[in-house]
Amino acid sequence: MEIRSDTVQVRCDKVGSAAPPVIARTRVQVWFIRVCSSILLWTGLVQLVAVGELWQPRFITDLTNKISQITPFPLHVQVIDQPPPPPLLPARNYTSNGYLKVSCNGGLNQMRSAICDMVAVARLLNLTLVVPELDKTSFWADASNFEDIFDVKHFIDSLRDEVRIVRRLPKRFNRKYGYKVFEMPPVSWSNEKYYLEQILPLFNKLKVLHFNKTDTRLANNGIPVDLQKLRCRANYQALKFTPKIESLGYKLVRILQERGPFVALHLRYEMDMLAFSGCTHGCTYEEAEELKRLRYAYPWWREKEIVSEERRSQGLCPLTPEETALILQALGFDKNTQIYIAAGEIYGSERRLAALRAAYPRIVRKEMLLDLEELQQFQNHSSQMAALDFMVSIASNTFIPTFDGNMAKVVEGHRRYLGFKKTILLHRRRIVELLDLHQNGTIPWNEFASAVQAAHEKRMGQPMRRRVIADKPKEEDYFYANPQECLCEGTNCDDLLGPNNSSSLL
Predict the structure, then answer these.
(1) Phi and psi, residue 129, nearest 5°
(2) Ranges assigned E (strand) in 290-341
(3) How confident is the model at residue 57 (pLDDT cuts 50, 70, 90)?
(4) Which residues contact 281 (CB under 8 A, 6 or more apart)?
(5) How far apart are CA 94 and CA 308, in angstroms?
(6) CA–CA distance, 208 with 481 (Å, rounded to integer)
(7) 414 and 236 Cβ atoms separated by less than 8 Å
(8) Which residues contact 384 (CB under 8 A, 6 or more apart)?
(9) 302, exposed or middle or buried, with CB in 10 Å at 0-12, 13-18, 19+?
(10) How far is the CA of 47 from the CAs of 67, 155, 400, in angstroms?
(11) Residue 133 pairs with which residues in a beta bridge?
């Protein structure tokens, strides 16, 4: 390039400055050219990143990844390298009968299974599903949105061959444009016929329907196999946690595995669990009264007066930390067993954990394994914290829930899906009988331990058929605890599950 010094000289004269040497002028111009080139280059890169968000071709994705790797700004977590995702299937071409908007209620795993149910309903009725809204008004009061917990783009893309999913309703259906969406809760445990005969006609009239409650709105049994398998696909493939949750969850698992095999103990001895179940065994009088007041403070909880010991004798209470220590010992776990407590704050804190910690000194929690700064981003977000515990529970060598709530059931089913990983499903009614007999001196330790082991021989997460109870959906086995349609193919199901191999009552 030819550089004309006379031009620079004239411009300098015009502003009243003396002409610098030729070399100095040349350096200024070279610097000016470099600055302009850098600006143009980074402007182009920013535009490529924006285009990549919309189109995501492979070369742009690789480019944006490289840009993020050289960014000088510190990140909270480092995303673990994952194998490239499988190619997307072609989007399903269908005429949508309307938009289905859903608001999930409950904790993380209750909402998780509900989302999978709504995917199946949208597929059955040829609807367009709006990305679900998550519960923000329950006891946990977690303000997290769907995209704060799950990878929303992966969710939409991975199901596109089955269901059309959009991030939000079209503007013409917004309230500010004068459109009022019709809200309703579907009938619980409903089958295919209910949705086809009673719900689909509503879409023909309204075009948009908002299900404001979604827990257990689809039956466990009597659903076409293709829809059952879609529920599994949504659960085990489409609902992927966000990179920041997955990164920290994988780190937790790696730390635990480096220390040896570990048990994930879902110790459901949290304040809300005890208050709403009415289980106060082992609590002081003051604690029992505090739990009762909490139960009365929530008008949506119908049961107010509960006799704790009656409920415990029926096997309807979570085991206390003290009871849990005895059961783990009876099952043969030695003192060196590494135990990860997958739960929220234990009611009574360290005082109630003393007996369990004395029996198993290698008890750890996520707060003990991670730096405060790493967990700080999840503080006051109970569902995101639960996602970390969920990942550890899935990866554990053995999973033991002390109560059969939503997390226990969903983790149980996920571990079955991954090859029937060992899950000890505690027979609480039998356990309570044995504990009382041992603690009052009726049976010695050896007899107690043998009886506990005998009660759990067939409760280790082995293959078995779901228990079906006609007209009693609440009492039959939960689909997400044992998604048998997704665990085998054709006649192999009989070979794996056995024609008469069904689960027993608690």
Answers:
(1) -90, 130
(2) 338-341
(3) very low
(4) 308, 309, 312, 317, 320
(5) 53
(6) 32
(7) yes
(8) 142, 144, 148, 149, 245, 378
(9) exposed
(10) 13, 25, 50
(11) 103
Tokens describing residue 306: 């509960």
Q: Which residue has the tokens 């779901």?
A: 466
73 pLDDT above the threshold of 60: no
Report percent pLDDT > 90 for the chain. Answer: 69
Burial grade of 479 (CB within 10 A; 0-12, 13-18, 19 or more): buried
pLDDT band for position 498 (cuts 50, 70, 90): low
Among 22, 196, 164, 11, CA closest to 100: 164
Reduced DSSP (H G I as helix, E B as strand, rest coil) percent helix, strand, coil of the chain, to 5:
50, 10, 40
CA distance 337 to 324: 14
pLDDT tier at 71, thresholds 50, 70, 90: very low
Q: Which of 117, 250, 128 is nearest to 187 (CA)?
A: 117
Q: 82-137: per-residue pLDDT in tens? A: 567 678 899 999 999 999 999 999 999 999 999 999 999 999 999 999 999 998 87
Per the model's pLDDT, the better-predicted residue between 267 and 7 turns out to be: 267
More confident residue, 489 or 280: 280
| Stronger pLDDT, 52 or 25, i.e. the higher one | 25
Count CB-CB contacts under 10 A for residue 74. Answer: 5
- Residue 405, number of CB atoms within 10 A of its CB: 18
How confident is the model over 251-278, as a mean pLDDT? Answer: 95
Distance, in Å, from the CA atom of 179 to the CA atom of 173, rounded to the nearest integer, reads 5
- Alpha-carbon span 315 to 439, nearest angstrom: 17
For 398, the 3-state DSSP assignment is strand
In this structure, what token pair is assigned to residue 447?
Answer: 């007899």
Q: 338-341 and 363-364 as β-strands: parallel, antiparallel, unpaired?
A: parallel
Residues in CB range of 375: below 8 A, 6 or more apart: 248, 366, 367
| Per-residue pLDDT, 350 | 87
- Separation of alpha carbons 466 and 323, rounded Å: 29
Question: What residues contact residue 140 under an 8 Å CB cut-off, 6+ apart?
Answer: 107, 272, 382, 383
For 421-457, the DSSP string reads --B----HHHHHHHHHHHHTTSS-HHHHHHHHHHHTT
Residues comprising the chain, all counted: 506
